[in-house]
Write a structure and sequence with these properties.
Length: 177
């Protein structure tokens, strides 16, 4: 049996030029609480490499985590929750002194002006760069941040290298229409 396709076929209609609205920039500051310890963690290891001692380390090389981390207005445990960061990250460095994760997360806002909107990040996150802020890329968004791009500067507010628990300040610069 021989199947042929008509080379004149058109699987979509027309393409029209887009005249974008004026681009906006929104700057947001919030805190992400990534808690691996205790009875109610917000992130859990879902896989680890057997060859790297993954089960013996809170953040062992090759470990894959699922996260449902609260986003809050301030760094304290009692701070007002404004959303959640859901996604995954993998420990991507063998040397704990150069601890780096690669992460995908949807940072969703569940209250206030941006309720129902989110920003999506997919980037390398060099956690061990304690001397200052590190930067991850914004690759998209939903709601008011549809088609977003930009970056997030992350500063570690608190980290426990024994448990892996961390509170991180996120300063996001979001370009959107």
């Amino acid at each position: 049996m021989v199947v042929t396709a008509n080379s004149d076929s058109n699987y979509y209609g027309t393409t029209k030029p887009v005249h974008p609205k004026e681009e906006k920039v929104t700057r947001l500051r919030f805190y992400l609480h990534d808690i691996l310890s205790g009875r109610n963690p917000s992130a859990v290891r879902i896989a680890h490499a057997n060859l790297t001692g993954g089960a013996d380390s809170a953040v062992g090389f090759g470990s894959l985590f699922a996260m449902d981390d609260p986003l809050t207005v301030g760094p304290g445990k009692g701070s007002k929750e404004i959303g959640n960061g859901r996604g995954m990250y993998v420990s991507a460095s063998k040397d704990i002194r150069k601890f780096t994760i690669v992460m995908y997360a949807d940072l969703a806002f569940t209250t206030g002006k941006f309720n129902g909107s989110s920003i999506s990040v997919f980037s390398r996150n060099p956690v061990a760069e304690e001397a200052g802020e590190r930067e991850i890329g914004i690759v998209g968004g939903r709601g008011k941040f549809r088609m977003a791009r930009g970056f997030v500067k992350i500063k570690t507010h608190q980290i426990d290298m024994k448990t892996g628990d961390a509170v991180l300040r996120y300063d996001a610069t979001v370009y959107h229409y």
